[in-house]
Write a structure and sequence with these properties.
With about 120 residues, the chain is an alpha+beta fold. Helix content is about 30%, strand content about 25%. The two termini are about 25 Å apart. The structure holds zinc ion. The site of zinc ion has 6 residues, from loops.
Length: about 120
């Protein structure tokens, strides 16, 4: 089982869980400040593959330069690389919202992923 400490990327936790679980064909469990990933059977998840999936997630939303991914065996933590003051506020015009449920995100690609879930 892989544990991802995402307290520094709390706003992206749900989207990250969906993306990474899909990439690794794993089952995500959302906890307070954490995502855990496990397999349907007893197979283990390669932590390095999980790190790659997380990096792929940040790349897909254009946030690669803002987050670092640290791995220690099966524990992975996400580090926000800037102080809160440097974080650019998202303007309302750059927000995307779901017409089905009102879900709001500043990332268009995440909205597309989200909307897909309504059709599963
Ligand atoms: Zn929705």
């Amino acid at each position: 089982m892989i544990t991802i400490d995402c307290r520094e990327a709390e706003n992206l936790k749900h989207e990250m869980a969906v993306f990474v679980a899909d990439w690794l064909e794993a089952i995500p469990t959302l906890k307070l400040h954490e995502i855990t990933l496990s397999k349907f059977d007893d197979r283990t998840i390669d932590p390095e593959a999980a790190v790659k999936a997380i990096k792929e997630f940040f790349a897909s939303i254009g946030e690669t330069s803002n987050y670092g991914v640290l791995q220690n065996e099966s524990n992975i933590s996400i580090k926000y690389l800037h102080s809160a003051q440097q974080q650019k506020p998202k303007t309302p015009e750059s927000m995307f919202s779901c017409t089905h449920c009102g879900f709001v995100t500043p990332y268009e690609v995440l909205l597309q992923n989200h909307v897909r879930m309504h059709y599963l």
